[in-house]
What we know:
Blueprint: H1 2-12, E1 32-36, H2 43-57, E2 66-70, H3 77-84, E3 92-97, H4 98-106, E4 117-132, H5 140-149, E5 155-158, H6 165-176, E6 185-188, H7 192-200, E7 206-210, H8 211-219, E8 223-228, E9 254-261, H9 267-282, H10 284-292, E10 296-300, H11 302-323
Parallel strand pairs: 1-2, 1-3, 5-6, 5-7
Antiparallel strand pairs: 3-9, 4-7, 4-8, 4-9, 4-10
Helix pairs in contact: 2-10, 4-11
Amino acid sequence: MNRRIAAAVLAGGCLLAGMTQAQTAWKPTERINYVVGVAPGGTVDLYARGIKDTLDLLKLVNGQTILVENKVGAGGALAMQALKSHAGNAHYLGTFHTGAIAGAVTGLIKADPRDFVPVAMLVEETSLVAVRADSPLKDGRDLVAALKADPTKLRIAVAPAMGQNTHLAIAKPLSTAGVAIDKLTIAPFRSSGESVTALLGGHVDVVSATAPVIVPQVQAGKLRILASAAPEPGTGPLAGVKTWREQGVPADYVSYNGVTLPPSVNAEQIRFWEDALRQVAQDKAWVALVQKSGNKPIFRGYVESHRYLQSEWQGTTELIKQLNLGANK
């Protein structure tokens, strides 16, 4: 059903845009369940809870309660299956994230994000590579040199599974730099929060994760960032952090974070959540939260999110083939 809605929106360009406020009759009438497919502590969980808090603060959900549930397992597939079981029910929200696309393309997630309705993208995420502050590795060049000499030498933490966005964010530049990425020692954790904890504890040597879980540890003097996968230099807490491109590796990788709805929701339900999340994106506290974490606050509604989902699926399929990570689709 959501694909038929998508076709109508993308072909006509006016289904949602032409609806007046009076026509948008749907509003939440019961508890809203926000299903998050990772453990607490990572960026996906951080932003889901930030969105929930802002929806509450701005009183955007018709007086209803929002319950965040971390449903962890199968690389996020359990959360997607739970969301799918409530098809047509817009009282259920899920996380829309680039990692789910990558996981599905590689076959690591036994669910297809194209079955769902991406209603908004709210965060453009910067992926970072970091080590402990006492590591002999000083920058991305040192990491490339070490892994060219021995691809198995360093344990690299990613989350929540191999083949997802934090894995691709380090694999792509390393592959471009000539590292044998199929021989890397990759250690998957349930969340990026757990990945960073493992790095701090000395259980792994390198972590690939998004900025919110790395920046606080850098500010505390415990971690050092080797490289950013952003296409251009960062600002705020990432000012001065060198991108891979600035270190001679012509590669970048950007992830997006937002909200998705179950399959078969209707246009009024999409419009309600798109309008509510647009207001979240404009809230100063929300913007400050995202910027403080080192990422970029954005707002892209249903049409743009749907187009991104389709194009990213195609682009990731090609990337997985190039990286020899075993795409099966």
